[in-house]
Amino acid sequence: MQHSTELLVVTLAHVLPGKDTEARARIRSIAETLRSAPGLISTRLYRGRHNGIVYLLLTTWEDEQSWLKAQERHMPKQLLLAATDILASDPEQWLLYYLWGYSRPTASAQLSSAHIMTLAPQKIGLIQKQWLMALHQPELQTSLTFAFFARGINDTPTANRMATVVHTGSYREIFAQQSSLLFGFFSWANEMEREDFYAQPIYQQVKKFVEREGPSNILSLEML
Question: Best-predicted range by mean pLDDT among 12-21, 60-69, 120-129, 211-220?
Fold first, then answer.
């Protein structure tokens, strides 16, 4: 799966206890609003548990300029900030570019997980290499349905300003210099395939390597 100019935006919202039903309706409404944004390629919405209920929104944009033009009316984080009555904290948002992707079209995804790894800039290249070596192995790919691996930065006003300054270059160049985040997204058709993926020695090896180098959050998710 080759992605040249596409930009991935990941938005994570933590919901207040007792507000899940209201939050689900509100976040689905936000996802519908986003689908009318010019330059938007895809929207995927997931729900999971991590110290309470969380919602994960994946939006893919044609390129950096499409994303920058969407800031005023179609930024997921900004739309969520208007729903402070259902959120336990401010939503988190990251800008990423794809490093690897895999899809098994004959199987539909039933179970998913997101691996969010925050790392020191001087260590991210080595861990990225370890992950990519593992993900290219057939024993990991065969149990997956839809999956990708990406690298990026926290979405901040500084990141957007840097991308719009003449001669600064693309987000990809900014990420190469300043990125501190690796993001792995994996889906399986059933519980047996998920357990097989996690039990593979090559996955266990990468997981232990990452845990020694920096914090890593693993979110178990269901697609909405």
Answer: 12-21
Give me the chain's average pLDDT, please.
88
The residue among 101, 125, 129 whose CA lies nearest residue 185 is 101
SS3 20: helix
Angle at 151 between CA 93 and CA 81, to 5 degrees: 5
The pair of structure tokens assigned to 214 is: 């920096």
212 found inside a domain = yes
Report angle CA 9, 153, 80 to the nearest 5 degrees. 45
pTM: predicted TM-score of the whole model, two decimal places: 0.90
Q: 19: pLDDT confidence band, cut at 50, 70 and 90?
A: very high
For 189, the token pair is 């058709």
Looking at the 3D structure of the chain, how many domains does it have? 1
Give the range of the structural domain holding residue 171, as residue numbers without chain letter: 7-223
Residue 1 counted as domain residue: no
CA distances to 3, 12, 35, 75 from 60, rounded to whole Å, are: 11, 15, 11, 12
Tokens of 201: 């020695």
| Residue 215, both tokens | 């914090």
Residue with tokens 């936000």: 30
Give me 116's structure tokens.
Answer: 């969010």
Spatial contact of 52 and 88, defined as CB atoms under 8 Å apart = yes
